[in-house]
Write a structure and sequence with these properties.
With 442 residues, the chain is an alpha/beta fold. Helix content is 33%, strand content 21%.
């Protein structure tokens, strides 16, 4: 008996789960349902375009999609084109792997002012996501970015670098035009905690200084390291490398480059102010309290900025027909087994990735996360697998007029983007219009 599994979400979490299923001793057939016409999720639409090395993971993911036991079914919207009960009719198990694409809020006054943005929305714009507007307001000369992780660095770097520096990447024409015309000269990155607790990766941090047009300025105010900080870096090699890099930069004078990225530590957001538009960002100086935490000092600073980007984390959003923990922004689960409102496992229903554990960890965590979920899926469902017609789901989508994009169609789109890039001296140029993606795929 072949175990049929549907995975909702075509990003790394879903594809890794499919890979592990096919490597098990069980005879399986896996369909990956993805809302967009293109697979790979945040690897395609969440990684900065000037980080092509990270996108090398696409090659491994593509090999999984090419397996005969795996089918990619793109342009299928769960909750609209197909519901959970429908999937249960066609499959022995359903795995939700929809990730996290919404921005967490700062919960401060003025956050809804024009000029206040979520980092995830900006990332989707410069990565050519088909669901976002083609234009982005980039008139601000001075910008605040709130956050101490790699997304904050990505946003700051893209805002600070010149458009021409990004032209060698896969950005589409509208993104290049926007970045070419942007006005930002100074980008201020604010971290609530001290430098020892920055969540930057060492490589991403060092790359800030690689631009010929950008000076990196680490301000000495707030650059404090206490005993708890030293204990933290002693246990965390990455944090120690980050602190060493920052220490080499602190207090260094700008060299006169036309753009600057300023890194400020021990500053927490208080308010965004302006008359109908962002005009100021207000912060409060914090101090270390000896246990890794901080507290406010009451010392307030107003920064003259015309835009604020919050990069304080992503949030998952509720999934049709499934319970959702709004506080943790995850589907309630026990090691990947989805739990109903009474806390009992929902038969044949599983979850993996950020929708399971929250938006933390790197690709390696996603693999181990998927392994845990797949182990429970096989344990729970192999013995109850039923005889199912693989063609039934195809007939279902055909009857409803869903224009499914399969792996061969994705390869058409992939080849087209590569050809566009080759014609322009680049590796690829993304197609950003959804209708055009579908047309090329066919």
């Amino acid at each position: 008996m072949t175990l049929r599994v549907a995975i909702v979400g075509g990003g790394p979490a879903g594809i890794y789960a499919a890979d592990l299923l096919t490597k098990s001793e069980t005879d399986v057939s896996v369909d990956i349902l993805e809302r967009l016409p293109a697979p790979f999720g945040l690897v395609r639409y969440g990684v900065a375009p000037d980080h092509p090395r990270i996108k090398e993971i696409v090659k491994a993911l593509q090999r999984v999609l090419a397996k005969p036991e795996v089918r990619f079914l793109g342009n299928v919207t769960y909750g609209v084109d197909v519901k959970l009960d429908d999937l249960r009719d066609f499959y022995d198990a359903v795995v939700i792997a929809t990730g996290a694409m919404a921005d967490r809020d700062l919960d401060i006054p003025g956050e809804d002012l024009p000029g206040s943005f979520g980092a995830a929305d900006f990332v989707c714009w410069y990565d050519g996501h088909p669901d976002v507007a083609r234009d982005w307001p980039l008139e601000a000369r001075s910008v605040a970015v709130v956050g101490a992780g790699n997304v904050a660095l990505d946003v700051a770097r893209v805002l600070a670098k010149t458009g021409d520096e990004m032209l060698t990447t896969d950005i589409p024409a509208n993104v290049y035009a926007g970045l070419k015309a942007k006005q930002a000269t100074d980008v201020h990155v604010f971290a609530r905690r001290g430098p020892a607790y920055a969540k930057f990766s060492p490589l991403e941090l060092r790359e800030l200084a690689h631009s010929p047009n950008v000076d990196v300025v680490v301000h000495p105010e707030g650059f404090e390291v206490d005993d708890a900080s030293m204990e933290h870096i002693a246990r965390n090699k990455q944090a120690k490398m980050v602190l060493n890099t920052l220490s080499n930069w602190v207090g260094r004078e700008p060299s006169g480059k036309p753009h600057r990225i300023h890194l400020h530590f021990l500053e927490q957001p208080v308010a965004i102010e302006g008359d109908g538009q962002v005009e100021r960002f207000r912060t409060e100086r914090t101090r270390l309290v000896g246990d890794g935490g901080v507290e406010g000092t009451g010392e307030i600073t107003d920064w003259d900025v015309q835009a604020v980007y919050r990069a304080v984390g992503y949030r998952s959003t509720p999934i049709t027909d499934l319970p959702f923990d709004t506080r943790a922004a995850v589907i309630p689960n026990d090691e990947g087994r989805v739990l109903d409102l009474e806390g009992e496992p929902m038969a044949g229903t599983f979850v993996t990735g950020w929708i399971k554990r929250g938006p933390v960890g790197l690709i390696g965590h996603t693999k181990s996360d998927a392994a845990q979920t797949v182990a429970h899926l096989l344990e729970d469902t192999v013995a109850t697998a039923a005889e199912r017609d693989p063609a039934a789901v195809d007939a279902y989508f055909a009857e409803r007029g869903v224009e499914v994009v399969e792996f061969a169609n994705w390869e058409n789109l992939d080849n087209h983007e590569v050809s566009l890039g080759e014609a322009d001296g680049r590796t690829r140029i993304k197609v950003v219009d959804r209708d055009e993606m579908l047309r090329v795929a066919r």
